[in-house]
Structure formats: structure tokens, C-alpha cells
Design goal:
The chain is α/β, with parallel strands linked by helices. It is built from eight helices and 25 strands.
């Protein structure tokens, strides 16, 4: 089975980090988001990959080729303009039209599930997870037999809380492409902001009689914005049991697990953790860092960080104070007023 991974988007919700690198290459728990996706699929037998690139696509291609050149078969297709996930598959139609079945995994979401069960379902199937706010996701509405009767992108009045998490197995490729063509021809192409969603193409397939079922996943990490990225970082660090032994490389430091240090990091007089991932060749001194992601080749001193993302090649020097405080004094450096 070939895996299609759309990674063309600009990732505006993760700015400023996506000004200089595509969202799938933002690091989380020690490696890029895209690395987690590829590794998960590779461990479950996928060897053929098609990446649909766009924004800073050369960096995506460089990462995949350099990291996986000896393990996977990788092809790249440029999506221009970038107008949605269904359009991304349409751009790649010549690469997928002869496939018997197809796996589509969005490039900004990490899904943990029993892939063997997912692959063994004979008909088309989508991965879902129950969510608290279904209005901001693509949602499915199943019948009592578990067959999907409706898919809708960001419904105003949701009738289900089963959200699409970005993993799809399609067994009827000709119908998928016909459905994409249909929704593109029916939409207002004159509207430059229009996007063609895979959710709508799947709904068109259902309208044409295609049987599509669903499977709930074990875990889903939506990496689309800062808050969810940090939550995913903490969850992955805990789940994969990252451990860093305290040695002479970290003098006068307190390490609170789970943490992940990259290669040749230098730490001095600092408290690190919990839930911290630090990139390669980063130097941290006289700092307290927790629940954060720190990039490679960065330097931090006298910093106190919580729930923070610091990019690569960055320098942060905190405020060092000398105080002489008299009686009956209150000073609050945390006030936002």
C-alpha cells in the first residue's frame, strides 16, 4: 500500500516557527513531526511514500531524502496553488490512479492505533477520535451499523463528536478521483480563498454508494498550534519513556524526567524538566526550564521558561537582578498589568 502524506501547508498557526521551516519539520519529542509519522508507518510495513509538498517543500524533500534514503521509496509532487487536501490528491492523481488501495495521512497529525486492524478492513475506512468541541474538526455521522452516512467539515451544529484525525484508507481510487473532480467543478472556483476538503470528497463517495466505515484510534496528537504541540510533546515523552542519565556532562544540574537531550548539549547550573525536549548542540546555563521545546544550536542563560517553544539558532539571556528590599514590600514580577 502506498502512503500519501500532504505536507504543503504554510502552518500559519505555528508562526513564527513556520516562517523559516515547514510545520511538519517542527521538532517534537526529539524529532520532527513528519519523522514520527514516517516511523509509525514504516514500523507497520509501509515502504512506498508520496509527499505532496508546497510551502518550503525543498526542506521537506531534503529531510526525507537525507533521513530515509536507505529505508523508504519516496516520491514528491508539488501542489500549487495550495487549496486543500482534496486538491492535493488531485494534483497527485497520475501517481495514485493505478493503486488498488491508498493510505492518506495528513502531515501535521500523529496517530497511534492498531494499524494492522486498520489495514485489514476490506472497505474504505477513516480514523476518528471523540472530541470535546466537534465544531472545529471534520466530523462523521455513522448509522447504527457503523457505516458512515455523513461527513461534514466544521459543522455549525454537530450531530456527532467523532472527529476525523487525519488517517484514511481508500479502496476505490477511481471513485475518489471522480468525487474530487465533482466537488471541484461544483465549487466557486472564482473565490481565491476556497479550499477543497477531503472530507467533502468522501461525502461525495458516500453519496455515490461507497461503503465507508470508521475506527477509533488509541491516541491522536494534533500538532497544529503551540498549545497542542506542547501537549503532544509531553505525552510522547512520557509514552516512549525518554530517560537521560545525569553524568559529568551536566554539572550542578537537576533533571526531572521525562526529558530528551540532543547530541552534544551542554548544561550548567540548571533545573530541566519535566516534559522538556532539547535539540542538538544547545547550551543552557543558570536556567529553569519545564514543559518546553528547545531547538538545536541555541544558547539560553538565566532563563525561566514554562510552556515555551524556542527555535533553533536562538539566543536568550534572562534578567539577572540584584535587589535590596525593605520591610513590608511586595514585588510581583509575574503581573500582566
Amino acid at each position: 500500500m502506498k502512503a500519501i502524506i500532504p505536507v504543503a501547508g504554510a502552518g500559519t498557526r505555528l508562526r513564527p516557527h513556520t516562517h523559516t521551516q515547514p510545520k511538519p519539520l517542527v521538532p517534537i519529542a526529539g524529532k520532527p513531526i513528519l519523522g514520527h509519522i514516517i516511523d509509525n508507518l514504516y514500523e507497520n510495513g509501509i515502504r512506498d511514500f508520496l509527499f505532496i509538498i508546497g510551502y518550503l517543500g525543498n526542506k521537506i524533500e531534503e529531510y526525507v531524502v537525507n533521513t530515509y534514503k536507505d529505508t523508504i521509496n519516496a516520491e514528491f509532487v508539488l501542489q500549487e496553488p495550495r487549496i486543500g487536501s482534496a486538491h492535493a490528491l488531485w494534483i497527485a492523481r497520475n501517481f495514485i490512479q493505478d493503486e488498488k488501495e491508498l493510505l492518506v495521512v495528513l502531515g501535521d497529525t500523529i496517530v497511534e492505533m492498531n494499524y494492522s486492524n486498520f489495514f485489514n478492513i476490506k472497505n474504505s475506512v477513516v480514523a476518528v477520535r471523540k472530541v470535546d468541541n466537534p465544531r472545529i474538526f471534520g466530523i462523521i455521522e455513522p448509522d447504527k451499523h457503523g457505516i458512515i452516512k455523513k461527513l461534514i467539515e466544521k459543522p455549525r451544529i454537530p450531530k456527532s463528536n467523532l472527529a476525523l484525525v487525519g488517517a484514511y484508507k481508500i479502496t476505490n481510487i477511481p471513485l475518489l478521483l471522480d468525487s474530487i473532480k465533482t466537488i471541484m467543478s461544483h465549487s466557486a472556483s472564482a473565490n481565491s480563498s476556497w479550499e477543497y476538503h477531503l472530507t467533502d470528497a468522501l461525502m461525495e463517495m458516500v453519496n455515490q454508494g461507497e461503503k465507508i466505515t470508521f475506527m477509533e484510534v488509541d491516541n491522536w496528537f494534533d500538532c497544529g498550534k503551540k498549545e497542542t504541540l506542547l501537549e503532544a510533546n509531553a505525552s510522547l515523552l512520557r509514552r516512549h519513556g525518554f530517560k537521560t542519565s545525569v553524568s559529568s556532562n551536566y554539572p550542578k544540574c537537576i533533571i526531572i524526567q521525562p526529558v530528551r537531550f540532543g547530541k552534544q548539549c551542554k548544561l550548567e547550573n540548571s533545573i530541566i524538566g519535566p516534559n522538556v525536549a532539547i535539540g542538538d548542540h544547545t547550551h543552557i546555563s543558570n536556567s529553569i526550564i519545564q514543559n518546553s521545546i528547545i531547538g538545536s544550536f541555541s544558547e539560553l542563560s538565566h532563563a525561566t521558561l514554562n510552556k515555551s517553544i524556542i527555535g533553533s539558532d536562538s539566543s536568550l539571556k534572562g534578567l539577572v537582578q540584584s535587589l535590596n528590599i525593605g520591610d513590608s514590600t511586595e514585588i510581583d514580577f509575574t503581573s500582566n498589568e
